[in-house]
Structures are given as C-alpha cells and as structure tokens.
Task: structure prediction
Amino acid sequence: MKNITVLIKPSSSDCNLNCKYCFYKDSSRNRETYSYGFMNDDTLESVIKNTLDQEIFSCNFMFQGGEPTLVGLNFYKNVILLQKKYNKKNIHITNSIQTNGINLDESFIKFFKENNFLVGISLDGPKYIHDSNRKHYNDSGSFDDVISTIMLLKKYKVEFNILSVVTKYSSKLVGIIYEFYKNQGFTYLQFIPCIKEYNRDCKSIERDYYLDSNTYYKFLDTLFNLWNEDVINGKFIEIRNFMDYINVIKGYNPTSCGMGGFCSLHTVVESNGDVYPCDFYCIDEWRLGNIKYNSLYYIRRNDLAKKFFERSIYIHDECKHCNYFKLCGGGCRRNQEPFINGIPSHNYQCESIKKFFDNNLKKLINLAKYYI
Ligand code: SF4
Ligand code: SF4
Result:
C-alpha cells in the first residue's frame, strides 16, 4: 500500500448544526451508541502512530464529522505535533478538514494556513436555499456565519472548496446555485445528492430530501450544460462530479469511490478509535476493530473487511451489459441498498445516470480536450 487516507471523526456525530438531511446523524442513529463524544489525546496518538507505522509513502488525514472543529484548535495543534513525532519514515503527510464553517475564528484559520490544511466548506447555495436546511438548533439559518468564515479564508488565502448537499428542493434551483457560486468566485465545487436513509434493519427508506430518478437527471443535465458552456468559453470551474467523468474518458482513475465498480476499503476512525470501512457504513455491523488495540494493517485485512469488499464486487446484470459501465461503475454500493442475501439491489439512480449519458456523452468527450 503506497497511499492511505484516514478519515477521522474527532467529535463523532456531534454537531453544532441541526441539518435535517445529515447522513451521518442518520447512520449513527442505527448504532448502539449514537455519539462517542470527543476523541481524547490517547486515541488521537494511537490513530497517528498506528497510521504512520504502515508501509506507506503518503498519507492524508481527513477530519470530518459531525462537526470536526467542535474539539477546538488545541486538538489540531496536537495533530501536527504527533505527526512530527511519529513520522519516522518521512511519509508525505497532508491534512484536510470538512466543516460547516460556523466555528472557525481567525486563530483557527491562521492555523490552517500555516499548516496547509485543505478546507472543505459545506454550503448549499444562496441564503434562502442554504438556510432552508442548514439550521442552528434554535431553527435560525447558518448562512451568514458560513459567509463570514469564507471571507476569512479568502483573507488568509487558505485553499478551500465548496461541498453542496443537493435536496429534492434545491436540485430544482441548481442554475441559481451555480450562478451564485460563480459570482462568489468559487472555483472548486462538489455536489452531493442527498441519499436515502437507513432504518434499523439497514434497509433504505424514502424521505422528503432525496432525489428521485427524474429529479436527479434534471439536476445533472442542467448543471452540466451550464458548466459545459462555461468551459467552452474559457471559464474553468472544477465540478468534481463531472471532472471524474472527464478523468475516466482521459484514461485516469476517478476520485469518486462509487465509480470504481466495487468498494474501496476506506479507513474511517470514530472518536473512540473504532474503525469502519466507509463513511456510509459506520454502523455496528461493519465495525472492523479498534485502532487502540489492533494494528491498522490487520484491521484492513480481517475477515469482516474482506466481506465488505467481496460483497461489493457483484455486478448487476443490467450493469454488465451497460455501455456506460466504465464511466459509472454501477455507482456507489450505498445506492444499491438493500443487499438481500449478500446481493445488492440495482442502483436506484440508474435511470437518471443512463439518461444523462444518453444526452451528454458526446459533450463530455468534447470537453475532455479542454483538460490536460
Ligand atoms: S459504499 Fe460507496 S463510498 Fe463506500 S466504499 Fe462502497 S462504493 Fe465507496
Ligand atoms: S448506468 Fe445503470 S446500468 Fe449502467 S453501469 Fe450505471 S447503474 Fe449500471
């Protein structure tokens, strides 16, 4: 193994916002323990030491939540000290953090700049769209706090990108959202369609937020065509969703796990040290071990880890005969829940993805020539 990404949940599922669509709160409600609280110093030290003991050349520590800034700046200062202490093999280390942006003061932001953190900010568009879901516990919107933080990130020249969760409601306003981001000068965007919830039996159920096939298609098609025109006119904005298709067309690997055709084994570490194979599966059934007591090397190779991987290599008959398999890979296995007797269902977004390629593949191939 040459590179590893370790996704750390310093504050478990705790968050200072009360977004209704939060997939991590939903997953956590399906565990015996909803939140493991804040990660303590001993656990953090185990995570960093255990990770840097691996035979790797590079490592990305990625902090997510819940809201990972809740643990405070000293936690992250300790991260840097421990990385220096245990990096005996001169491994190339990078750090990134995904945050709702409402708990970041100047000292946090200066720290991110000084230590080269890549910051992902969760923002869902202009105020009325963002505030419709991303609310404080007193029901007030969080948009103004996020924008203040973005101004500070710009002031201190911290590298950041925007991650937007797309709901059934906001998907219909994607043109407005995209225009807003362009006016703000944001150039790195990622859109995440809201996924179906688990229930206690780990079967997906429908709810108000997730996009049905037709809505998802319209969202993809509208956004892509706006972006296509911009790229052709020399405005280079990166939208990860489409850049991944272009990468595949150009013969590179996609960055989105779901496009690979099977599950990659991620390393997600909860605040108590428990390790899971994927951010979407931090539930008791898929607890692989605990990084305080087991080597990461063995955790990633144990029987449960193998089972997680093996159940993902099943390819649905429709996907086997699909012209778009190389681009789509059948999609994220979480979109193929429920698994029945270990066999996944067909991707519930398939119809929209097929229709998107039917109507836009030629344009995608044309766009690939604009990127090296
Ligand atoms: S469930 Fe999706 S994101 Fe998770 S490992 Fe599988 S394909 Fe990747
Ligand atoms: S478009 Fe549908 S059938 Fe084709 S690979 Fe993707 S999920 Fe499978």
